[in-house]
User: Fold this.
Amino acid sequence: MTTPVALTRAETVDLGEGVTRLGALVAIDERTGWVPPGTTGFEPFNVYVVREGDEALVVNSGPAVLAGTVLAQLGTVFPSGSLAVALTRNEFEVLGGLAGMLAAYPGAQVVYPGAGSILDWVEFRQTIAGVEHDLRREVPIVTHPFFGGDFVLGGDRKLHFPIPPLGTLSFAWIADERSGALFTSDAFGFLHVENGEPLVASELPARVTPEYVAAHLAKRFYWLQAADRRAIKAALGQFFSATRARLLCPTRGRVIAGEATVAAAVDLVMSGIDLIEAG
Amino acid sequence: MTNDDAFQSAYIPSLRLPRPVAGALWWGGGCSDVKRWGGRFLDEPIHRHQYCSCYWLLGAEKTMMVETGHGAQWPVIEAQIEQVLGDRRLDYVFPSHQEIPHAGNLGRILAKYPDAVAVGDVSDYHLYFPGIDRDRLVDNVPGDRIELGDRTVEFLEPVWSDLSTTLWAFEWTDRVLFSVDVMEYSHLDGPLSCGLMSDEIELPSDEIRKLLVFLLQPGARDTPMEPGLRRLRELFSALRPRVVAGSHAAPIRDNLEVFIPWILEEYAATGSDSGRLGGVRAEWSELLASLAG
Assistant:
């Protein structure tokens, strides 16, 4: 018998300047592959919407278990208009809701660099208003923003797509200058929810030490064990010297808010990288 | 890139698949035409296909599918499974890690074969395939073995990998190493090129090798390759594989001592120690020739 995965705290969170977080929490347990053993609490899965007039950019679409929830939330935040869905990776946890979103928003486009021909990877046959559609034939793929380009929303709102200085399988981070939001894909996802903590962290809990962050980095960014970490740290340092981020918005984990808290999180990652055991 | 009436899927079947490889091992899946991915892939100087491979082990008592085939190719994969299994049931399906080219059909396979269970590191699949009964996700760690009757499959720690949850495997009777993303290679586009194994094609030239062989590990350029090559050498010396069955490769069989050194020489040129690693190809040719003896 199938036991449904329990989703809790399905919340939309207004992050300001037209940026909204969609998603819910799932329990962290022994089957959770991206955290160190022994991690407890709940993991926020996050999909973000950036709205500008009657246009919106959605950042990733969440895992399949959240697809219906996220689509309903999106409908309340952006009931209609010109939708684009940007994908920072092509993993299960960001693709699960894509087909449903594209079916729900006629004329939607996908912002994706091309790797693998992404619409083949999802349920591309969709029935829309009783008519069968093949999304692969109908949905435009926008590739140009990747590797340092921009996507323009609503005429003049620029979202920049830098190469991630830290990522496993991620093609892009996305930086929204207007809100100061930096969508970091699989990076900076080390803050889980415990004891009813808010989804947005304006300060880092005491339990989040460099050792704690190192353990998380060693799981998702396991390759750091053998890599030249000076190069990675240099890239991170250079990135955050040049980029003023007021929000770190990961695919998983609590949103990190405030310039000082963002800086503290970056410092923790830098320290954590040094603490990862060589392997 | 926009879609139009000229749309062609990037995922193309091979008329040669599925086909037997050696002993109880069968090869299936298909190819992905990289030019049809769009974006910067349109600018690649060659026209290549990425293999999207899956395998079956038909043991005397039980069967196992290794990888689920690419999620984009389900109709093809479904037909292949039926052809390979015939009247037999599917007992185990081992997706090597949580990526759509490897595990994309897991939900469909477990729905089609209600007696099958998923094995390997089965983290997170309950989130990606919410309809799967969690009792059918059986977790394994390196060293665990699964008996198929006259075949034994052992899970292995990978040498290089995409994700920290990746597992390799080794089948002890036919000595098949399932190397997942390692020892992968693309093949050049051509009407007759899909579905051929390493001993059925001409080894591509060294000049285009860097366009066909990639080490699919994050951070590879900042990582020394020597430790991984050393661990791979130890693994080969211990296991003495006769077939290397990669997930983005055709099976390498009967000419391991030619093909694998060619691939690993490219790996040696990939990492942060590329200027210091010489002689990898000759070293591995010698090693594999000695292991085959």
